[in-house]
Write a structure and sequence with these properties.
By secondary structure, this protein is α/β, with parallel strands linked by helices. Helix content is 34%, strand content 21%. The protein has 2 domains: 273 residues, TIM Barrel (Alpha-Beta Barrel); 314 residues, 4-Layer Sandwich (Purple Acid Phosphatase, chain A, domain 2). The strands form 4 sheets. It has an 8-stranded parallel β-barrel, surrounded by 4 helices. 45% of the residues are buried.
């Protein structure tokens, strides 16, 4: 196999008019670089050493144009350039098969990722695709595959682009190749098991070419595009981005990187390697400076559903002082509901709570609860439009996106999507993600206080937008945690998606929790793929609990129609009349043994 690979490499370099350097490393012994998640080698076959040049620069995605000629899949950009022996098998599949065999389980040493092989079909769609499937099937040990609704990821994932036969691929129960979609398919609902990638021409969607600052409207559109794709489980790639060395290309690459575009296109392997490596170094340095004691154990506190009613409002300042006295806390989280469900959602009340929050001496991470906006349609709450109350909360409590309340702690936000309350951050290799997921079936219950008997159009639009953002943040949290080799993921929400008091009603009618279905599915998928501890901390149901609601045998699995997520540990904090304590979580140091990264205890308030 490798002999044919060398022959093909020599032929390919002659195609490009480039002689193989006398000092080049043998084709069967690439010196592999550090894998770079966003690096895509466009027209990879035109490099001096197809595939191996990309791997030596750490690229995790390569692209090959193919033509079916006399039963062979020949690699070339144009039909006139095809040469005998320069085949998909000899240039890519045989060398990858051998490389994975040598490494043991992956393309790069001790790498859990899958190399994307983007195959751009230039000839007839149906016949070429059939030949691709046959050829991929001759390398089953390395290829990802789809079988009867299940995707099994292998060391190499083939995605077909160009002339691709969608109907044929949709009809197949089993296949080795996946479909490269276009921007028009973002809202198609096509499963990621068929279409894991969405690619499009940069110039068709954006006018900015890297000269001057990116227009804010285009930046927001780019970020929203990525969030929408990620919420559906799709990766994102653009072609025709600027690729001439200079400040314009660097500016576009920076925006793509910061927006979370999954594959950055280039023909300049060394330049993109240098760019992405520098970005990783900058990120690591920022993380290090943000937490000087990043290797040490630390604690944080969580409260929720407080203060409820006049008596607790009067005690709230002293509750805060009790928490302030716990000087070792790294930060505090309030997981929503700053009032009970039967009092007015007034600006004055919000301002009073904000002034109390400002007395926290620790960084305070706050996510709104349903009592302060979702349920404000109720007559005894003031019969407000809940969306107006949500806008007010954002203006009053999240007026400095990227900063916590209390003492400042930098956090990443979804402010560009209009959700500044959704934040994430990392401490001591533990990834924290706080997302706006609401009780009251994630805000799908009708606004009866306004005379509605079913969800309104504007209500449904807000739920969809917020859910998509939550899904994107959850997936990005796990992806970043995997990339950094974090020890655990901690999710925080207001909603109790597994409220014991609602179990009977949800069993009788699973639609009672339909607003959580996509979120639970994403949490299970990401938890099962992460293979390290995952913790979910919530309020909402007012009674302290520590359980595994997604473990095998849980009744919630049938309600949500999902497989088990055994590694998810859930903790519900006390609230309402039970809010006589805060929960102190301890995060173990990096050197600590055992699988339990987090431990916790209830700490009583003083009065």
């Amino acid at each position: 196999m490798l002999k044919s690979a060398i022959t093909a490499l020599v032929a390919a370099t002659s195609l490009a008019g480039i002689a193989v350097p006398a000092t080049a490393a043998p084709a069967d012994s690439p010196v592999l670089g550090q894998p770079l998640a966003q690096a895509h080698a466009h027209n990879d076959y035109e490099h001096d050493r197809p595939l191996f040049d990309a791997l030596e620069h750490g690229f995790t995605s390569v692209e090959a144009d193919v033509w079916l000629v006399d039963g062979e899949l020949l690699v070339a950009h144009d039909r006139k350039d095809i040469q005998p022996g320069v085949t998909l098998e000899s240039l890519y599949l045989d060398p990858l098969d051998e490389l994975v065999r040598q490494q043991g389980h992956s393309v790069y040493p001790q790498w859990d990722g899958s190399l994307q092989l983007l195959i751009d079909i230039k000839s007839d769609a149906e016949s070429t695709y059939a030949a691709i499937e046959q050829e991929l099937g001759e390398h089953p040990a390395i290829m990802s595959r789809y079988s009867n609704g299940t995707t099994k990821t292998g060391p190499v994932t083939a995605v077909v682009s160009g002339n691709r036969p969608l109907a044929t691929m949709q009809a197949m129960d089993k296949r080795f190749a996946f479909y490269d979609g276009r921007s028009g398919g973002l809202a198609s609902g096509m499963p990621a098991g068929l279409m894991p990638l969405v690619s499009d021409n940069w110039t068709r969607l954006f006018t900015w070419q890297g000269v001057g600052p990116m227009p804010e409207a285009e930046r927001a559109r780019l970020q929203a595009y990525v969030v929408e794709a990620h919420a559906a489980g799709y990766r994102v790639r653009f072609w025709a981005t600027p690729d001439q060395a200079g400040s314009a290309r660097d500016a576009v690459w920076t925006e793509l990187h910061q927006a979370g575009v999954d594959h950055i296109n280039t023909d300049d392997l060394a330049a993109l390697q240098q760019f992405l490596s520098a970005q990783a170094s900058t990120s690591e340095a920022a993380t290090s400076s943000a937490s000087a004691a990043d290797g040490q154990a630390f604690t944080f506190g969580v409260i929720g559903d407080i203060p409820y009613g006049a008596a607790e409002i009067a005690k709230f300042p002293s509750r805060i002082q009790d928490i302030n006295a716990d000087e070792a806390l790294k930060f505090v989280s309030h997981v929503g509901d700053i009032k009970n469900g039967s009092t007015v959602c007034s600006d004055e009340y919000f301002a009073m709570i904000r002034s109390q929050f400002d007395t926290f001496e620790h960084p305070l991470v706050f996510t709104p609860g349903d009592n302060e906006w979702v349920d404000c349609h109720r007559t005894n709450n003031g019969a407000y439009n809940p969306l107006e109350r949500l806008d007010t909360l954002r203006a009053m409590f999240f007026n400095e996106p990227g900063k916590t309340l209390g003492e400042n702690m930098p956090v990443k936000t979804q402010e560009s999507l209009g959700l500044p309350e959704n934040v994430r951050f990392t401490q001591n290799r533990v990834a924290f993600s706080v997302v706006n997921i609401q009780g009251s079936n994630n805000s799908l219950q009708p606004w009866t206080g306004l005379g509605e008997t079913a969800p309104t159009a504007e209500q449904l639009a807000e739920v969809e937008r917020r859910t998509d953002a939550a899904l994107a943040q959850i997936r990005e949290t796990f992806a970043d945690a995997e990339r950094r080799n974090d020890r655990a993921v901690v999710l925080m929400t207001q909603a109790d998606m597994f409220d014991p008091s609602q179990l009977a009603a949800a069993t009788d009618n699973p639609e009672a929790v339909s607003g959580f279905r996509e979120i639970v599915a994403a949490i299970i998928e990401e938890t099962n793929g992460f293979d390290r501890p995952v913790y979910l901390i919530n309020g909402d149901s007012h009674v302290f609990a520590e359980d595994h609601p997604l473990a095998e045998g849980s009744p919630w699995l049938a309600i949500y129609g999902q497989p088990a997520g055994d590694d998810l540990q859930r903790i519900t904090v006390d609230g309402s009349a039970n809010a006589t304590n805060y929960v102190r979580f301890a995060v173990s140091g990096n050197s600590a043994g055992g699988a339990d990264v987090l431990s916790w205890e209830k700490v009583p308030f003083s009065g």
